[in-house]
Structure to design on (528 residues):
């Protein structure tokens, strides 16, 4: 075992629009942990999301000891504290609490995974605290870094390195460089500084077939069981990339092409994980489990032939599913599917280049329901030039298909995202005057972007429309979907909406406790 010591840190996901999440094991860092151990390095995996939740469970009534993640919503304060070294007592206290639960001393390299914008704020704050204590080298990686790495690296010298895209080989070569074994120019996909100048080595992709089996042995797995239904759900990636070309999506910037693992590798690794962690529950992390109909069809056959006896959930798209393959997916262990339905308006779906329409969505939801697969769906409101009639069609879609919908997970207001077709060619989509929703980062391009519609409302009016549209969809959920499980006859919608909005801004761990505590008393359960 080599003397070089590495700590890999996974950060909490804080959703700014909807407080709906679960505590999942950090898949990508689990892969890196296994890969570095295979190369005889000392590496420790740490997940702050579960550590913070566990800490807060121990101090239910002690506000001073609880860690309040809502501090991260105060982005201006976080940036001033981390970047401008301001003295903010609340942020300082939060940073102190974090450093108490994550030990970063005596390590030669700290790696932090950055998946979302809120992750980055956390990583920025944590990096500052680490550097204030010791001079440990810090490297950031993950999807958010892959998309925005160069701009971030230029602005925040507290971070020593950033890795874009696949992390296994670049991280290993970075460690070898720090050990003096090779030059920094030989490390693919790396951002670094040389004599005050930002350097970016060419990004290189590596086959998905070469990914290691994730290693979660450093984590307290019982904590993850206690956050769900006492069943450990293991993340796993079968395919990578998406073949769709939605004009608002940035996934192509992370994975520009589609690839899949060999069937033998998938079966072998699932069997290994199932035995190693004593669970048969999996969460497939693919962008879309059905990006390739042919691959999914054969994969389900093999699951059945091998008698894997696993249950799994996945994200799917409606365009190429049908009753035949859904029947096979159920037989192969599929428990639930999450669909990004987006809208109940064919006009909106066509303008997004989604690749399917309302009729297809309805058909897939019905077939999935008939096979006993749970349907979790997502909607978006406020796409450019979306109108009242489009929202009416969406609420009608919910009403007609309510029998087949198990849960509406989120209704998200639309914003333009950097490095997407809509952002690059706004005039083609009838919008103009793109500007950051927040001005906290004067020269950054990674924020969400506001826009004005050409011959339509300006952004300020667009926000009001989005909130009105969102409320209408939630009201349809309240009327047609939720009553499948509970009676709400004695509760007015305004109270439900008020309660839901309040829950949006509570720490997600408390959201689930409140829901589990009160839902049984909201009404009598009904059979579907």
């Amino acid at each position: 075992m080599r003397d070089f010591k590495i700590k890999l840190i996974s950060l909490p996901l804080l959703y700014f629009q909807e407080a709906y999440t679960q505590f999942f094991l950090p898949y990508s860092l689990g892969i890196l942990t296994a890969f570095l151990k295979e190369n005889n390095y000392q590496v420790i995996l740490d997940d702050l999301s579960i550590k913070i939740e566990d800490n807060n469970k121990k101090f239910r009534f002690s506000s001073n000891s609880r860690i309040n993640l809502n501090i991260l919503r105060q982005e201006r304060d976080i940036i001033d504290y981390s970047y401008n070294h301001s003295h903010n007592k609340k942020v300082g206290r939060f940073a102190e609490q974090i450093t108490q639960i994550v030990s970063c001393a005596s390590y030669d390299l700290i790696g932090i995974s950055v998946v979302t914008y809120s992750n980055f704020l956390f990583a920025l704050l944590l990096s500052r605290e680490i550097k204030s204590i010791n001079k440990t080298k810090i490297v950031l990686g993950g999807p958010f870094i892959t998309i925005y790495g160069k701009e971030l690296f230029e602005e925040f010298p507290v971070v020593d390195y950033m890795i874009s895209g696949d992390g296994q080989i670049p991280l290993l070569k970075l460690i070898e460089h720090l050990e003096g074994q090779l030059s920094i120019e030989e490390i693919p996909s790396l951002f670094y500084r040389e004599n005050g100048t930002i350097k970016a080595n060419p990004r290189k992709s590596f086959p998905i077939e070469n990914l290691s089996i994730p290693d979660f042995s450093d984590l307290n797995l019982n904590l993850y069981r206690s956050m769900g239904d006492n069943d450990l759900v293991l993340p796993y990636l079968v395919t990578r990339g998406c073949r769709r070309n939605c004009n608002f999506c940035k996934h192509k910037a992370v994975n520009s092409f589609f690839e899949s693992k060999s069937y033998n590798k998938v079966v072998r690794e699932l069997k290994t994980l199932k035995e190693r962690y004593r669970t048969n529950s999996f969460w497939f992390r693919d962008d879309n489990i059905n990006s390739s109909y042919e691959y999914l069809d054969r994969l389900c056959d093999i699951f059945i032939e091998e008698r894997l006896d696993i249950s799994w959930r996945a994200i799917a798209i409606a365009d190429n599913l049908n009753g035949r393959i859904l029947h096979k997916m159920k037989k192969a262990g599929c428990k639930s599917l999450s669909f990004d339905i987006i809208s109940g308006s064919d006009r909106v779906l066509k303008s997004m280049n989604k690749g399917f329409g309302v009729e297809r969505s309805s058909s897939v939801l019905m077939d999935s329901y008939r096979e006993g697969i749970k349907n979790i769906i997502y909607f978006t409101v406020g796409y450019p030039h979306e109108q009242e009639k489009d929202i009416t069609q969406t609420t009608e879609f919910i009403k007609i298909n309510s029998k087949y919908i198990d849960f509406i997970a989120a209704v998200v207001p639309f914003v333009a995202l950097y490095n997407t077709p809509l952002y690059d060619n706004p005039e083609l989509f009838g919008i103009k005057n793109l500007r950051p929703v927040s001005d906290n980062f004067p020269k950054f391009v990674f924020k969400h972007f506001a826009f004005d519609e050409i011959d339509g409302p300006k952004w300020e009016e667009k926000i009001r429309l989005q909130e009105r549209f969102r409320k209408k969809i939630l009201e349809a959920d309240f009327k047609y979907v939720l009553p499948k499980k509970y009676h709400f006859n004695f509760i007015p919608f305004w109270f439900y909406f008020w309660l839901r909005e309040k829950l949006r801004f509570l720490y997600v761990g408390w959201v689930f406790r409140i829901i589990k505590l009160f839902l049984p008393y909201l009404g009598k359960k009904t059979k579907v």
Observations:
- Residues 32 and 168 are 6 Å apart (CA to CA).
- Residues 231-484 form a domain with the TIM Barrel fold (CATH 3.20.20.70).
